[in-house]
Amino acid sequence: MKNYKKLILLGIAALMIQPNLSVAQQKAKFQQPELENQQSWSMILLPDIQNYVKFKRNQPILDVMMNWIVENEEKLNIKMVMCTGDLVEHDDIVNPDRNKMDQTGKQQWEATATAFEKLDGKIPYITATGNHDYNIFSYTHKPKTTHFPNYFPADKNSKNQRLLRDVAPNIYGNPSLENATYEWKSPHGKDFLFVSLEFAPRDTILGWANQVVNQEKYANHSVLLLTHAYLNFKNEHIETAKYDLQDANYGTAVFNRLVKPSKNIQMVFSGHIGAANDVKKHLGFRIDKNAAGKKVSQMTFNAQALGGGTYGSGGDGWLRILEFLPDGKTVRVRTFSPFFALSSNTQDMAWRTEDYDQFSIELN
């Protein structure tokens, strides 16, 4: 009888311990991001962030993402951060419908600038401007005016200012980072030129960009182009959009007039697209060749309607880590959420590992 009671007690104890073992096993499976090769450097790609800043409740998630970048700067050798645009939901709204957003345009710009302030003086970053960053929502023939230059001046981040090279005039004729280039040499000695173009760049801007990337001094650089509306989820170049703009060029025109004729553009990054809780409708990828016969890897990455749709969490903290290996040609792409990684209860969701979220790119 004593042995029987002992077995019962041991069984109860085992049942009580098992859940703790399960949690320990779950923690053991989760791996924080790390470099595949300790000689690599990495770039962080942020998707459209408008749905984080338009609601006060969502802004801490963007803070988590920015704090994670700073925390992992050394571990992942982070040398650049890029954001695909739509930095705000509405450029200048003063009386928002609180069911759709509870922050004015001014408050949204302030929240965005404050979030990026965490990187100021630490890590260079480049932001595209998206359609939501411009005052074009009346669908009339209005110029693309924006408050972007007020919140992202050239001297906002000292790390950016050191790399800044070429700046084009905005709609007012003033120099603005809406269209700008940044030159940088990687730890492996490879020269890069980062080019950021406004949403639906004007004809004059495409002409300016062509002149810049084809300069002799950039002939041997790898050019990485950042713009907002470029690929759809079917991996096709976007031909047009609903906005009533007379002088606008979307993905097809940007590819045909700038990317394809170039000899050194090797990567294009964009955002813009998405559908409620549908991961694949936030993504696009294709490879074409430019005039030099070099492969151009074109990536759209967004997350704005994940986590509850347009009025949900803002995107569940998803970002992409691009690791540039020391061979100078291999780029490892991984998709990670610092937000889900915060808690052991959600860490099993912190990585997306489908082949469209985790893959390698080979540069020429």
From TrEMBL:
Q: Which GO terms describe its molecular function?
A: hydrolase activity
Report if keyword Signal is assigned.
Answer: yes
Protein name per Swiss-Prot or TrEMBL:
Serine/threonine protein phosphatase
Return the InterPro entries for the record: Calcineurin-like_PHP, Metallo-depent_PP-like, STPP_CPPED1
Q: Which residues form the Calcineurin-like phosphoesterase domain?
A: 67-273
Organism classification, top ranks? Answer: Bacteria, Pseudomonadati, Bacteroidota, Sphingobacteriia, Sphingobacteriales
Q: Which UniProt keywords apply?
A: Signal
Signal sequence, start to end: 1-24
